[in-house]
Design a protein that fits this description.
By secondary structure, the chain is mainly α. It is built from five helices and no strands. Helix 2 runs antiparallel to helix 5 and helix 3 runs parallel beside helix 5.
């Protein structure tokens, strides 16, 4: 992460604050999923009435939370990496590998954004709902698409930072 990103100055600093806040939203969604599951288990054990549709909310909530975390992981470099390739590499080689990884992240995120947008359109058009709670499935696509847009922006920031390291 660059000094500008860390200090909160400029567009990268704003992106850092937004992406961090979005990851916290994902954390709150995950806490909500845990609370729903705990309530379902307790009400099932105590009153023999588990919360109907808890697994539907778990599926949607977990998916939304995971996508909320992706931009933060990309921005902070917290994604899984294989250090075996960079352990003995020169700083220039590491910078080139980072540039290549940034390009792959950009392309992959653009494809995900494109296809998930198409999925949203399809699910809205064909009006598919969850089985028990009858929640429109397309609702889950909205925060996921926001996450992917933020992921794309984080990938752009990472790619530009890697480009600067290669140019040095």
């Amino acid at each position: 992460m660059s000094a500008e990103t860390k200090t909160g100055a400029g567009p990268q600093g704003l992106a850092t604050r937004v992406i961090t806040g979005w990851a916290l939203v994902g954390g709150l969604v995950l806490v909500g999923v845990v609370l729903i599951n705990a309530w379902s288990i307790l009400s099932g054990a105590l009153f023999n009435k588990p919360f109907a549709g808890d697994f539907e909310l778990t599926e949607m909530g977990a998916a939304i939370a995971v996508f909320c975390f992706l931009p933060y992981c990309q921005l902070t470099g917290a994604n899984v990496s294989a250090d075996i390739f960079t352990m003995r590499a020169s700083p220039r080689s590491v910078a080139l590998m980072s540039l290549f990884a940034g390009l792959i992240a950009l392309l992959f995120t653009a494809i995900l954004l494109w296809r998930m947008s198409a999925g949203l359109v399809d699910y809205r058009e064909y009006e598919e709902f969850t089985g028990i709670l009858q929640i429109p499935i397309w609702w889950a696509f909205l925060p996921i698409l926001v996450s992917l847009a933020l992921l794309f922006y984080a990938a752009v920031i990472g790619f530009l930072q890697a480009l600067k390291r290669v140019a040095r």
